[in-house]
Amino acid sequence: MLWQDPLAREVTRREFFGKSATGLGIAALAWLLGRDQAQGAGRVGGLDGLPHFAPRAKHVIYLFQNGAPTHVDLFDYKPKLKELHGQPVPDSYVAGKRFSTMTGSPQGKLLLAPVEPFKQRGACGAWVSDFLPYTAEIVDELCFIKSMHTDAVNHAPAICFLLSGGQIPGRPTLGAWLSYGLGTENDNLPAFVVMTSVSKGTTCGQIFYDFYWGSGFLPSRHQGVKFRGSGSPVLYLDNPAGIDPGVRRGMLDDLAALNRLKWDEYGDPEIGTRIAQYEMAFRMQSSIPELTDLSGESPATLALYGPDVLQPGTFAHHCLLARRLVERGVRFVQLMHAGWDQHNSLTTELYTQCKDTDQPSAGLIKDLKMRGLLDETLVIWGGEFGRTPFLQGNLADRPRWGRDHHPYAFTIWMAGGGVRPGLTYGETDDLAINVVKDPVHVHDLQATILHLLGIDHERLTFRFQGRDFRLTDVHGRVVEGILS
Fold it and tell me: Number of helices and strands (H, E) in the chain?
């Protein structure tokens, strides 16, 4: 009997089921190691039957602004806030609402007018603050959603919720789902790339947790590959001294042979992932230096992104790399810029955040459009929630003005990839506290992003622990009103 064999008692549950499904395992390994192009010209990997219908976008660049940009100071213009500046927020607007522990009860909190003036911009007349002069120039390319709302009230759960559909870490993130479902168009680069940055001198304590780009229960080859902001963009790609590509190739072939022996013995899918990732790393030894060499970019292109574009680790540098990545077929690029947590720095650090991100974000849109890439690239800009229209701090101490977390209404913008340009969708009340028209929940945004890439969000699932999971959990609807 199995339990009477002392060696068998050492077999793990994973190994037992792996051995019991050798046929499936071999098929999975062939898929992992194969270079055969999947459905669709030039595509590598992905699932049969995807996309479900003709996609409007092929790639996504998510300009994620960690810490939550203040919608009432940047995009959601409310004249009544200026009129009622310094007066207590009416109870009818906030009764029964949960805020962070820094606010506690909102009763008696004083309303705070926008720090900088707003103007209507472009032919579409979208309202944008003077904080963002470069974004103001491209509003006719943008689709503003002013009726976003979420369930989470603190940063990490809210970011996790927006990117993975769950507030608790452990689920696959959006980029991992797209890598799993759609594969990539360039087998020499990862399908899902992440870059992080933070404004110099910020007091914001935002942390970039690995689960923000994790693969959760999907095979780990689908997790985001993080590019570093200094030194070698990807760790351990360089060969040690005395090791040339030929020697490295031979080492990898021998290592793969050993790993295949273990695969045959245990059928563990993570062994297949390990083999595939070693191969990817070998190919990236030539693709990454070419990707990060900006010497061929024209002065006019570099000028679009601003003065920091050639400084590795900056948001501007990452925006240019994002364009180069999608140009080379990468499916999902996630830029995360921290520092937007203005609890007491609206009149100081908010200026820095906008200066560091405004021109590069606008420059990316202009660059993509000039190269004919905007139509097939969905660009998203926004954070995990908004900021309270009432003050956090002392009204008499202007240098320390701040706003707390606000999950009930916030603004994002999208461009390209099948969304309607020059559109403002949704509306908040006259104090920008609650959504009053065309609400868009986080799950609705996720469903819409998948739809733009040709995916029915209810049909892209993965069975885990006896349940078919999906990005949108059991919720979500496509926001038809923003589609071009």
Answer: 14, 17
Give yes or no for a contact between 188 and 283, defined as CB atoms under 8 angstroms apart. Answer: yes
For residue 338, which of 479, 215, 467, 159 has the smallest C-alpha distance? 159
Residue 425 and residue 145 in contact, taking contact as beta carbons nearer than 8 Å: yes
* pLDDT value at 28 more than 90: no
Residue 7 has pLDDT above 70, yes or no: no
What's the pLDDT at 248? 59
Question: Where exactly are the structural domains of the chain?
Answer: 1-33+242-296, 45-231+312-482
Q: How many CB atoms lie within 10 A of CB 168?
A: 11
Looking at the DSSP bridge assignments, the partners of residue 130 are none
Closest by Cα among 65, 80, 148 to 118:
80
pLDDT grade for 2, boundaries at 50, 70 and 90: very low
Burial class (CB in 10 A: 0-12, 13-18, 19+), 458: middle
Judging by DSSP bridges, how do beta strands 410-415 and 126-129 pair with one another?
Answer: unpaired
Residue 332 forms beta bridges with which residues?
60, 192
In angstroms, the Cα distances linking 356 to 132, 316, 333, 367, 461 are 10, 7, 19, 18, 38
Mean pLDDT of 290-310: 96
Interacting residues of 256 by C-beta distance below 8 A, sequence separation 6+: 275, 278, 279
> ∠ CA(230), CA(231), CA(236), 5° rounding?
125
Q: How far apart are CA 375 and CA 372, in angstroms?
A: 7
Q: For 232-262, what is each residue's pLDDT tens digit?
A: 776 656 666 666 666 556 666 666 677 777 7
Tell me yes or no: is domain 45-231+312-482 CATH 3.40.720: yes
pLDDT for 372: 98
Residue 23 is predicted with a pLDDT of: 41
Could you tell me whether strands 192-198 and 332-338 are parallel, antiparallel, or unpaired per DSSP bridges?
parallel
Whole-angstrom distance, CA of residue 196 vs CA of residue 256: 32
pTM confidence score: 0.88
